[in-house]
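User:
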Amino acid sequence: MSGTDATRAALGERISYAQCWEDPRMLQEALDVGPQDDVLSICSAGDNAFALAIAGARTVTCIDLSAPQIALAKLKLVAAEKFDLERFRSFLGVGPIGQRVFLYHELRPFLDESTRLWWDSHEAWIRSGLLNCGKFERYLSTFRTRVLPLVHRRKIVDQFLDMSDVSEQRQFYDQRWNTFRWRSMFRVFFSKAVMQRSGRSPAQFAHVQGPISQAFMSRTEHVLTTMPVADNPFVQWILGGEYRNVDNSHPYLSAEGHAALAKVADRFTFVHDDLISHLNACDEGTYSAFNLSDVPEYLSEEETASLLRCCVRASRQGGRIAYWNLLVPRHRPEQMADVLDRNEAKAAELIVNDRAFVYGDFQLETVR
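Assistant: Predicted structure:
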């Protein structure tokens, strides 16, 4: 079975992510989209595709193997159009609980049939808040509510999340946070075996060799000791289950971003397909920017090269391609150096300041 086939089988009928876990600030700076840009973006939870439209892209095509992921993004987008900021946040799971199912029924007439049918049969997820409904978010909830309390009292967690001075934060981490129990728990809970049993796709680890928890521990220590946690929405959600400053989280959840997204909702197209099939069907020069998320993580080197060749064919000259590496080093092969440039220095600069921190590397490449 090819990487694409395995991924389709694993991801095709579920919501893996209710939020995007790649830093939108990185993506916006990497792709630097403007009013002449037509973007192809992995849909996932929709958040980073929304960020690119808010940043000024002319059009954004959201593609995903998973129909439920597309249904999630479409529901978020319609909610942004129809609700004021307070009701929008509440509906998604930020702020007061409110009557989320009642709010959903206000939106039903504005949804296409497939989206409406999906959410009609998953109202329980709406009741709990859309930002909590993904497999990954439920996995993090288990960590936060059942595992973390065995390591640190809530008082310690809150003290840590309240810190704004990085030097004090580093000292707190060394003296209070990084205990033997923390390290032991982390090695177990973020091991490949536990993550797969908890619902992570086997396809995600198909090309990974050796243990993974040490890589995650290194990245976690980096973000907890070099960036202010009070300014990091990803750390806040993982450790506390909420955004302490919603305006500093995903761009579309801010007051300004919500208003902007509602205005550009007509710029989106949603495609339920795999990347290579879609790219092969496109006219040459269709797109000028590509957000591939972590798709190459699921692919072999040969499949990654094939994907990049398809992007080059569908790209205009100067098109930018961005994607993250989790545990598998994927990037443009040397035999494509005549058509695709690697922007290694810029990518390295961006990954150092990646607030989402779960990824080990970042690729930014430009079509010649």
